[in-house]
User: What shape does this take?
Amino acid sequence: MTQVTQESPVRGEGVWGKAVAPEYQGALGSLSVNSSLADVLAKGVEELRAAEAAGEQRETARCGLAVAEAYRRLGRITEADQAWKASYRAARSEQDAGAMAWAMWSGGTLARQRGALPLAYRLLGLAAELGERGDDVVARGYSLAGLAETGRIQGDYQAVRELHAQLLAEARRRGEARHTVWALEGIAQMHRNTGSYDTALDLFEEAARTAEAADDRRGRSWALRGIADVVSVRDGDTERALALLSDAECDCRKMDLSSALAYNHKMRGNVLYRAARYTEARDTYARALEEFAAMDEPRGTALSRLGLVKSLARLGRDRAETATELAELRVALERIGLLHARDMAAKAATELGVGPLPGPVPAPATAAGQGTPR
Assistant: This one.
């Protein structure tokens, strides 16, 4: 896998205004980025019904976007899928390219959450084009960010490294704190995954400071999760890592961030596993697994299952059973489109002394086969 450059990305922290949520539009434009998702959904459904009753298609599209995003972040996948499509239809009826872009962005983000990476690339690419056609700079930026994040999650760092840096520079230039935080976290994650822990920690900490200055609790919770990961793997500082995750969990609960909370719990499992606290790790991974399964989130489900398999192996599980499940997970991770899936499974098998894994080795995935970010 291509290594992320060790040079620092565009730096420079400034004074930030309050973070905003551009996906909350129309009658919902006054909602805070920190609004509880339950409140967003209730208000969104109320305003959506009023717009539909009045025959106001533009308002229907914009209220429907907030409803779709609330459903998605709450893990209510079926409702989210229906809502973004309805928002798109309403926007298309008015030939509102900007609203069409936002609806398509929501659909692409949902596709990535569900592990459908080729579909995510297609929808987010269309969203970026619609944003440009509608002269909606923010919709275009968020759509390009979605493409960058999809490639990063897939493990195709070579394709998206420059796009992350470009989006960070643009966000800073426009003073968009929330987007700046996202870009910092994405770049930090690539550095962390390629072993540049010091750089990763600097960027995660900058993201946390920026999010806090802009009162972006969601961004801060993800940044704290990243910091916890690095101090755990680099320094072996288990207690600090757990304290950071507990801090982040408070914000996740206040805002009903179901997906972020599940990833927080999976990271807690990672921290406990690294500390050889295998019983606690097993229980934490099992909890995260239940949360991801309830949201139909295949990537989180597979990663939590991997942690659970490793914990059970450390607690004395049969070696053959461990090898069989790791082989199944290798296939599941490949199916999602993660380029490093085979490496993850092989590394776990070597770590646990259960290799080689049974069954056929999946064919290598390629960025072209999964759709190339644009």
User: Anything to note?
Assistant: Residues 263 and 300 are 7 Å apart (CA to CA). DSSP finds 17 helices and no strands in the chain. The two ends are 20 Å apart (CA to CA).
